[in-house]
Amino acid sequence: MVQVSNHMPTAELQALDSAHHMHPFTQGAGLRAKGPRVITRAEGCWLTDSEGERILDAMAGLWCVNIGYGRKELADAAARQMQELPYYNTFFQTTHVPAIALAQRIAELAPGDLNHVFFASSGSEANDTNIRLVRTYWDAKGQPDRNVIIARWNGYHGSSVGSGSLGGMKGMHAQGGMPIPDIHHINQPHWWNEGGEMSPEEFGLARARELETAIEQIGPDRVGAFIAEPVQGAGGVIIPPSTYWPEIQRIVDKYGILLIADEVICGFGRTGNWFGSQTMNIRPHIMTIAKGLSSGYQPIGGSVVCDEVAEVIAGVEFNHGYTYSGHPVACAVALENLRILDEEGIVTRVATDTGPYLKEKFESLADHPLVGEARIVGMMGSIALTPDKASRAQFAAEAGTVGYITRERCFANNLIMRHVYDRMIISPPLVISRDEIDTLIERAWKSLDEAHARLKDEGLMQAAPRA
Ligand SMILES: *Cc1c(COP(=O)(O)O)cnc(C)c1O
C-alpha cells in the first residue's frame, strides 16, 4: 500500500493525483499535463502549497471560508461532538441537540418569518429540496399544475441534476440531459455585457420585466416560483442595477409566486449583512444556504422556509431527506462558526470597516488600462477586462482566453483570483485585514500589468465586432 503523505515530493503527489483523482469542473487531460498545485496548509487568508509558497486566497476557498482558515474552536467543536454523538438521523421521529440549536439560531438570524430549516449537506442538495418543496407546496394547496420554476441564464444553483437544471449554465445542460422539465430560464441583469445602449437603470427594469412576460406566456396558474441569487456569484459576480430587485419583488407579489433567494454565497456576511436579501431589500419565501454557514469547515447546507410554506408542508408527509440532513458534527461546527461571526463582529466589520476599505481600493482597479469596470458589494467583487473601455468592448479572442491568461498571472504572483470568461472575481475571507487588502490590490495590479503586456505582445488587445 502506498502511504500518501504531506512529505512526498510534489511531482509524486501530482502523478498519483493524475492517476486516480477526478477533478470537478476540470479538463482532466489538460490538468494531467500541467500538474495541479498541491495545497497543504492554511491559516487566516493564506494557503501554503507543497513547495512552501504562501498564497493569498482572495476566493475564500470556493466562496466559503468566511471566518478564515485555522480556527481551532471549530476543530474542537467537531471533536467534542464526535465523541458525544457522532451521528444520528432525524428521519423517524427523532432529533438531536445540534440540529435543534442550529435551526433555532438560523431562524433568529434570518429576516422576516423565515423560521424553519430543512438541512442538507450542500447547496446543490438544498436546491433539490427547494424544487421538491415548491412543487409539494402547490400540490398540497390544490394547484398541482403550478410546478414551473423560473430561473435565470448564467445563474448558478449547484451541480446535481435538479440544481443544475435551475442553474443557467449551458455548458452544464449540454452534459447529461438537463434541464429537467418545467424549469424556464430568463435573461440575467448583466448590464456590462448585455446592456447595449440602455442605462443600467433602464436595463435593470427591462430584465426584471422578463419575469412578468414569462409568467404571462407560461400562464400565471402554472408558475410556482422564481429562484435567483441576490448577487450572481459563479456567473461572474454580477451586481444587478438598482432597479432590478424592486421590480422583481413587485412582480413576485403581483402573481403570488414563491421567491427563492439562493444565499449560498451571499449568506452569512458576504454582502455586509447576514443575508444578501437584506442588502437587496427583498422578501424571499425560501432561502438556500450552505458555504459560509460552516465557513466550509464541514459540508452543510439547507433551505430556510417561511411560516406559511412550512405550515403547508407540515400538512403532508414530505417524502424527501438525506442521510446526513442535520448531521450533528456539521451542525455543531456551523453553530460555532455563527458564534464567531457574531461575537467577533465580523459581519459588522464587512459593513463598516474593511468592506468600505476594500471597496475603495478595488474600485481603483478600474483605472488600469485593461479594466473596464470594477464593482463590489461587501466582500464579493469583479472586474471586467476589455480591449476598449469606452465601448464596453469584448475581446475578439474566444471568451475566457484573456481571463485565463490573467488568472495565470495571479496564480504565478501567489494570488488566488478566479476568472469567469473575461471577468476577474474576488470573494476573500471576511476576516481579511487592511494590510492584506493592500497586498491583494498590489498583486492584482501587478498581474494585470503582466497580462496586459502579454496580450499586447500576442496581438490579443483586439475588440470583437459589435453584436
Ligand atoms: C456553490 C453554490 C451552490 C451549490 O453549492 P454546493 O455546496 O457546491 O452544492 C448553489 N448556489 C450557489 C449560489 C452557489 O454559489
From TrEMBL:
One of its GO terms (molecular function) is transaminase activity. Signal peptide: none annotated. Its cofactor is pyridoxal 5'-phosphate. Pfam families: Aminotran_3. It comes from the Bacteria. Keywords: Aminotransferase, Pyridoxal phosphate, Transferase. Belongs to the class-III pyridoxal-phosphate-dependent aminotransferase family. This is Aspartate aminotransferase family protein. The lineage of its organism: Bacteria, Pseudomonadati, Pseudomonadota, Alphaproteobacteria, Rhodobacterales.
